[in-house]
Amino acid sequence: MILSVRDLRVYFSSPRGQVKALDGVDLDVDRREIVGLAGESGCGKSTLALAISRLIFPPGKITGGKVSFDGRDVLSLSEEEFRREYRWKKIAMVFQGSMNGFTPVFTIGYQINEVLQIHGFEGDLQARVSELLRMVDLDPEIAIRYPHELSGGQKQRAFIAMALALDPPFLIADEPTTALDVVTQVSIMNLLKRLRKENGIAILLITHDLALLSEVVDRMYILYAGRMAETGTAEEIFREPMHPYTKGLIASIPTLQSTKIAGIEGFMPDLANLPPGCKFYPRCPYVMDVCKINEPELRNVKGDQRVACWLY
Amino acid sequence: MPAGSTSGGEPVLRFEDVSVFFTKRRFLGPPSVIKAVDRVNLEIAQGEIVGLVGESGSGKTTLGRTAIGLQRATSGKVIFSDGELNIDVSSAKGRVWKELRKYLQIIFQDPFSSIDPNMRVFDALRIPLQAQGVKDKKEIESRIYTVFNEVGLPTDILWNFVFQLSGGQRQRVSIARVLLFNPSFIVADEAVSMLDVSLKGDILNIIKKISKNFGVAFLFITHEMAVAKVISDRIAVMYLGNLVEIGPSNEVISKPLHPYTQALIQASPTIDPSLRDTYKVMKITGEIPLSREHPPGCKFHPRCPYVMETCRVNFLDMKEVESGHFVSCWLY
Fold this sequence. Notes:
Oligomer: heterodimer
Order of helices and strands of chain A: EEEHEEHEHHHEHEHEEHHEE
CATH architecture of chain B: 3-Layer(aba) Sandwich
Largest sheet of chain A: 8 strands, mixed
CATH topology of chain B: Rossmann fold
Distance between the termini of chain A: 28 Å
CATH class of chain B: Alpha Beta
Number of strands of chain B: 12
Number of domains of chain B: 1
Strand content of chain A: 15-25%
Strand order of the largest sheet of chain A: 6-7-8-3-9-10-12-11
Largest sheet of chain B: 8 strands, mixed
Strand content of chain B: 15-25%
Radius of gyration of chain A: 20 Å
């Protein structure tokens, strides 16, 4: 495993009490693997990404658990050590709004250059920038352009190029295509697949778009209210989703074959005031008495598929 | 039958050769002109939902804004008809304009920025009513309760602040707000794009119900082909300001004619884990051009896999290929 998260807890303190954004979450990513993380907004997807890259700031706090990278516990490192050895070098991130993360006043090349320099890249900087841009199917000429001269898709590619600057073995892509058009979305997904195949990069792909995940990932995790509801290979989960929440999510995906779109009744519970028992029971069509009292744990049900539900 | 006309039913809104140009003056040299909407013809009937799809930058939103007069057309007419009356939305002024606004409404994409978060929900609904001259307290209350019921919200949240609501609830409030005046025509501009998958279905069902129960005509703007298919009766595809294909939803999805429509359909995600080791090969490449100079001839020709000589030179008007199914492409 390149990345292994165990029992991770991230709490935010707020005037309404503690908001348990993540409460005991496990997640593994193997080398050369594309792993999907899905769930509704507010379920903790992005918090998990930020916690892995140690970007949780007050009022948020990692209150428990372990994040190991290549077997080493990265949460116990000092900020300076983590910055020097891991951030960008081993764990790179691309965010949803990344394409707006470029400063408008410097050229793309200058900004990629800066990352290389700060992290102590030795070698021909200009050649490296061109190589990176070519890696993401951009014309190296783009290095002398300013961000506003590029389209959204080009900027997103340029940002991915920047994330790859130091040859990281692991990339977190948080909603990398949400603001982009479908045609561009396809090309970015092709790019991620190619990076895995040719450069052997492991990717954690976070999105609310399950259809998109189905076409890209090997394994996936479904997160609900800060807890894992289900995990398994993409084939298992899309062939036979087990958790009622996963079933609902998959039924709600609009596809060209669907004639109507289902939905999941109700809303996600307030994370500062969670119900006892299973956090999904107020919305669950199969709710039983036990669900209201005891919280189910992730259990192996079949193959690689693990579900946190009292039905199994 | 002219392009874009309804298959039956009286049109509530009619775009007649509508163009919207944005002109930017430059210090030296001629001003630059952006053709956001270019010679669009389209009719939307009572109770009909027309899905308008296209990539960002295709002019979808500008067309939507023009439909309800928030943007004035540079040329052409937007005719709103209510039985006997025919009013040109794009030249309406004064009292006519104020009156007209009740009948033409819009639901925006982002429920987090389209309603003041520091207002109580009740006030967010009361203020537009008072602005349109409804003074009677009882009537205000009864109208608000009625529309709240319509969108399936519990009335106890009327006294909550807007910031206390979830995204799905807020979008319902914005739908409730547009229903206050029993509008005849509503533009839904990416109304479900920001919502979670689990909520999309609900909101789409509410929109469908409103359209069928009250005979409201909708222009439903979306970039998701699958959403357009589920919600709309007809689909119109837009590229760089032109409508390139219009037809009944099922036909446009099952037999797309224009190469651009075909690409949009091909790019729509499917649920298929077996695709994960393959690269999706798109017939079209590149992105919608950002430059102000539109290509001559068919605007899509630089990205089209089937481009012919004539496409580079000649622009083509809509052609009816099958009954009610129009396309603007030299292949047909």
